[in-house]
Write a structure and sequence with these properties.
With about 160 residues, this protein is an alpha+beta fold. It is built from 4 helices and 9 strands; from the N terminus they run βααβββαβαββββ. It starts with a strand and ends with a strand. The structure holds coenzyme A.
């Protein structure tokens, strides 16, 4: 399996992947609504390829936290169900986070299961420090520091960062 930048021709297959992974309920999620209207960061959008088949995808959106730049929202991350168990999700995250850390980003956030995302280096956020517009289970809001100690420098409401 190889990871490469997402290309325009990958669009339909990524859409299929998102339909399979998230289902129709995906449009109602708070993370989805934060991203709505925002653009994915093009050079952080990656796909995982097994030979000619697209098996996974990761994208990021720039966000502001309390009006401050330098943060990303990770997602969607998805891997086709019949391809799970190849560490594809972890490898996509590692590659995306590594690229982001080479740019000017300091922090990446996501909403997800700590049991999985701690394997990629994510950790919990102190209650109330960062707020998502819309309902979100705060225990599922996680952060990855792209620069050491970055989390302490961010607080407040998340909004789209453009
Ligand atoms: C979540 C998802 C991206 C994981 O991708 P994957 O390539 O199948 O997972 P990986 O191979 O990277 O998993 C590596 C390890 O994490 C474990 N793992 C996978 N999903 C897990 C979960 N939800 N909770 C805890 N551990 C999990 C695996 O068992 C494996 O464990 P190991 O290190 O002991 O072998 C994929 O299952 C998926 O697309 N799910 C549906 C969409 C989704 O929920 N996306 C995330 C929200 S944006």
């Amino acid at each position: 399996m190889k990871i490469r930048p997402e290309l325009p021709i990958d669009g339909p297959q990524i859409e299929r992947l998102h339909r399979e992974a998230f289902g129709p309920g995906r449009f109602a999620k708070s993370a989805y609504r934060v991203r709505e209207g925002g653009e994915f960061v093009q050079d952080l959008s990656l796909v995982a390829m097994d030979e000619e088949r697209l098996v996974g995808s990761i994208r990021f959106t720039q966000i502001l936290i309390g009006g401050k730049q330098g943060a990303l929202l990770l997602g969607p991350l998805a891997v086709f169900r019949d391809y799970s168990g190849h560490r594809c999700g972890l490898r996509l995250m590692a590659a995306g986070l590594d690229l982001a850390s080479q740019q000017d980003y300091q922090l990446a956030l996501l909403v997800g299961d700590i049991a999985y995302y701690q394997k990629a280096g994510f950790k919990g956020i102190p209650a109330g420090q960062i707020l998502m517009p819309g309902p979100v289970d705060m225990a599922r809001m996680l952060a990855f520091e792209l620069t050491s100690g970055a989390l302490a420098g961010f607080g407040g409401l998340i909004s789209l960062g453009h």
